[in-house]
Write a structure and sequence with these properties.
The protein is mainly alpha-helical and about 250 residues long. The chain contains ten helices and two strands, in the order ααβααααβαααα.
Length: about 250
């Protein structure tokens, strides 16, 4: 192994230790905790976005701080991929050079992933292999919807730019095959969703395979960011709105 390859491997470990790799480890232990609890996996909940303080102004402050500092790993990978001859935005296809095509592809992808994903979640709940996922539990404030939209932006940027754009770039430099790149990326994506149960793992693994294949085909991460944002925005805001109107359990 060359010195450059060692450097790239170490860099990947550091990036993921500061971001989604750490989330994956915590998710594994979260799942272990749910599996060994007396009530069992199916009778537990996994809340994605919750209140962080009882006082409204303090809760909003924490939410905004979480969004701001949550983008630090994105800034890090963009910095690490910056080259003299080309910016990381162009390298990853994370720019506004093809807005119409990116929006169309992202929207179509969100629809193609969203409906089967909902069906898989229902099936996993029915079979007892997943906890009940509560997308949002922030209370009814004037800022609830904007904060949930920011959360969707954060998730889309962090996941797609790091676990797809950055990882694929570095694995290509290590001469890893395209099939292996897609598989590794999908496994990482699935693992940091294990806190939801096995249904979340399966669904995100399949999503990761599709996203990875399309990134290799399109050479642009922007459609994936658009699709991910639309999916999360629909889930977070939709659940919050229905919970308030219908008083869902």
């Amino acid at each position: 192994m060359t010195q450059q390859a060692k450097k790239i491997r170490f860099e990947i470990l550091v990036v993921f230790a500061l971001s989604l790799g750490a989330s994956a480890v915590y998710s594994i232990f979260s799942l272990l905790g749910k599996l060994t609890a007396p009530e069992g996996l199916a009778n537990q909940t996994a809340t994605i976005h919750r209140q962080l303080a009882e006082r409204e102004w303090l809760d909003l402050s924490y939410q905004l701080l979480g969004f701001t500092f949550g983008l630090a790993p994105v800034a890090l990978v963009l910095f690490l991929l910056w080259e003299k001859s080309q910016s990381p935005f162009k390298t990853l296809g994370f720019d506004l050079t093809e807005p119409g095509r990116d929006l169309a592809r992202g929207g179509a992808l969100a629809l193609a992933i969203g409906l089967p994903g909902l069906g898989l979640y229902i099936a996993s709940r029915f079979t007892g292999i997943s906890a009940e996922v509560i997308p949002a539990d922030l209370g009814s404030y004037w800022w609830t919807i904007p904060v949930l939209l920011l959360a969707a932006v954060n998730a889309a940027l962090v996941e797609e730019l790091i676990v797809v754009g950055y990882l694929f770039k570095r694995l290509s430099q290590l001469k890893v095959s395209i099939k292996s790149q897609i598989l590794v990326s999908a496994l990482i994506r699935a693992t940091y969703h294990l806190y939801q149960g096995f249904g979340g793992f399966i669904g995100n693994f399949l999503m990761g395979l599709v996203f990875g294949w399309l990134y290799q085909r399109w050479g642009r991460v922007m459609p994936l960011v658009v699709a991910h944002f639309l999916l999360d925005a629909a889930i977070f805001v939709g659940y919050s709105a229905l919970h308030g109107l219908l008083i869902l359990p």
